[in-house]
Hints:
Elements: H1 3-23, H2 26-44, H3 49-52, H4 55-68, H5 74-87, H6 91-94, H7 97-100, H8 103-114, H9 117-129, H10 131-152, H11 154-158, H12 162-176, H13 180-210, H14 213-227, H15 232-235, H16 241-258, H17 262-279, H18 284-290, H19 295-315, H20 318-331, H21 334-346
Amino acid sequence: MTSKQNDLASELLELHVKHEVASLKGAKLRKFLKQEVDELLDYAGHITLSRVASENQVMETIQRVVVNMELDAGIPELAGEMATEVLNAPVQSKTTLGDIFTREQATGFVEEALKLRHQRERVISEIMAHPVYQELIANVVYQGVVNYLYEDNLITKSVPGVGSMMKFGKRMANKAVPGLDETFERRFKAWLSDSLPALIGRSEQFLLQALSDEEVRDTVMAAWVAVEDKTLAQLHEGLGDVELQEFVVLGYEFWLQFRKTAYFEGCTRAVVAHLFLKYGERPLIDLLRDVGVTREVILSEVDAWVAPLIDVLREEGYVEALVRRRLSGFYKSAAARKVLESSALET
């Protein structure tokens, strides 16, 4: 280009940059964004999901961003600090459980849980069949029998001195035959262990019949009534900052391990496959509408976030620098030089 042509190109570039920057602020910016949203939604009315993305693409993105991305150690620290701030926030002592979870909602959860009768029966059966539970029952029965024999039976209460005599006899027997008390205890508990399965089986049937839907409903709702007016601060009394942060760290470590399991991948793949089965050949607008993303929702977020962000970037000089980078290449190009040369010849 000649010097004159260079000056003309520079002048055009400056005018173009000024024009673009001016169009990206105030009412002009909002008009532009609104127009572009409308244009994009029009395209979403006929462009399908499978045209813009594939099932494999989505799975690969999840793999990169959710599964493989290394998370900095500062994340659990920050999460723990945030959790502590939430735990100690003044709102905790001003808000009751009933303020955030109504009695109607609690009733709804109970009614749905009552439908899971098979799961309830299975839980009761597994608890009663557990060796620890059986050992607990054996110890409770043993202590109850011993207390009854020496203290709480009708004869001991009615006849003065009988209880003392029985205890005296027990001590004398242990002196005469050392270890007799331990032997009795061991044999009695062994007998209980042998007898308990049948007893627990009958107890299980009793519980299944006794824990009717009405009983469970009344019990749970009675517990709810007892806590619904307590503040959240009262409900988490005893949970200190250190303990809370430990729970956050444990949850974070669980997530790091869980996201790499075959189970997580299987669940994710099932969700993505269903998404494309249902929406793959349908316009994107159907998916947006079904998840509640309407034109009004988009524009409200544009006004709340996009426009203010562009305002800040413009004030910092980024918008002008961006526009200049995008345009300067054209005004220095051979195509622009040819047009300017033609214009100069015509004049």
